[in-house]
Amino acid sequence: MQFSDFGLSQPVLRAVGEEGYSEPTPIQVKAIPHVMEGRDLLGCAQTGTGKTAAFALPIIERLAKTRVPRVAKRVRVLVLSPTRELASQIGESFASYGRHSGITSTVIFGGVNQSRQVEMLARGVDVLVATPGRLLDLMNQKAVTLAHIEVFVLDEADRMLDMGFIHDVRKIAAEVPKVRQTLLFSATMPDDIRQLASKLLDNPVEVAVTPVASTAEKIDQAIYFVEKADKRSLLGWILEDTRIDRALVFTRTKHSANRVAEFLDKRGIRSAAIHGNKSQNARERALDGFKRGTLRVLVATDIAARGIDIDQLAYVINFDLPNVPEAYVHRIGRTGRAGAAGQALSFCEAEERPYLADIERLIQMNLDAVSKHPYPSPLGVPAKTDLTNRRNQQAPASYGARSSGGGRSGGGGRPQGQGGGRAQGNGGGRAQGNGGNAARPPQQKPRSPQDRPQATTTHDAGHNRPRHAGTR
Ligand code: AMP
């Protein structure tokens, strides 16, 4: 199956080609033909499966074919997302996939000043991606009307309900015209989602794909608890192992990708960074060098890594943990393809511990901690995550010290700063180290692997190098 088999127009196919997608993912194969026909759809698929394109491509197609003049405050397509991160990602996807089709899109979410959002809406927009709370606020202020919606998409519906947005969703749905196309995506299909679907959808087609989390089981995974300031040194140390002939390193920001690549280059490890600020040419050059083996390390942000498909990539290193847990599964899915052995190594600084707990709950396993490395976190190794807990009840945006405070789609309740959801310092059963103080204890940093200090924890399997992670 090819993208061209769907009957998509040239501008959309061109954008898909530029994203580097060679063929549609299973959810795209199953969903796109029905959405193109205008059917309602109930999709059981997680983020990471390619579901955004599964709904965005046919929507862009529809909008481009039936253009209408922009009218102030009017919207043609509404996509509801539980979190600002997901909303931003969806907005970026519409912008990318629709870049040659002349459609307009905007994203609104809480926790930030609304004036720019109001301005964008005042011009009228084809596609509005929104979190429920901010959307309701702006509806109440009459900054937007939903009376002209043609397609209504609810993404991550189960998470939306987990986060307590059911009333908001109902209020919003009541304002959308009855005659419309409705698409509902959810990673799980508990009764409450089925009930919601039966109210919102009209004779829907149901499609499902294997949960993304299942791919994680095939890959060797290990976690290094480390201080933020030591991450680059730890990466350099790991890459002294020449068996790692090629590694894809993920960072959360473009800036960090640049800094990591520069650091590695200085240490004689040939690397390049790819991210959204690099030209298409520079990205292609870097990717090509990586594929041919002239570059040993490619440092990428999630967005830039889209569509990267490299056979026999044995190592993925998460320099930063993603704050959207599905992104972890997607990242590590770059390795271990087609039955090949794959290893995913992740660094976790204090503020990322809550992200780790979310990831572990998603993949339903605790990652093995490597404790014998030269840069152990003074907070020690946290206790295992309780995998039976349901997903976190709030938006990832408000995790940890990066919190910017919320709006209705954020909300408090999660421990802040370095006191994450896990046992810290001397507070938890398995925690080791120096008592959880924020300050780094006086510690001689090793210069090379030869002067490695003794492990500060006792539960390592006895080896230092990636393949042999200990357990926690
Ligand atoms: P999503 O589940 O929509 O969040 O997509 C997960 C990731 O898969 C995103 O980084 C997309 O850019 C990427 N993606 C979507 N469709 C394809 C495809 N057909 N081939 C390769 N990557 C894809």
Salient structural properties:
472 residues; alpha/beta; seven-stranded parallel sheet; 16 helices; 14 strands; 33% helix; disordered C terminus; binds adenosine monophosphate
**Poorly predicted ranges (pLDDT <50, ≥5 residues)?**
391-464, 467-471
| Principal-axes shape call | globular
Mean pLDDT: 80
What small molecules accompany the polymer chains?
Answer: adenosine monophosphate
How does the helix and strand content classify structurally? alpha/beta
User: How are the strands ordered across the major sheet?
Assistant: 3-4-2-5-6-1-7
Beta-strand percentage?
Answer: 5-15%
**Continuous helix count:** 16
**Distance N to C terminus:** 43 Å
Q: Quaternary arrangement of the chains shown? A: single chain
User: What percent of residues adopt helix (DSSP H or I)?
Assistant: 25-40%
Written as H for each helix and E for each strand, in order along the chain, the element string is HHEHEHEHEHEHHEHEEHEHEHEHEHEHEH
Main sheet characteristics: 7 strands, parallel
Question: What is the total tally of β strands?
Answer: 14
Radius of gyration: 23 Å
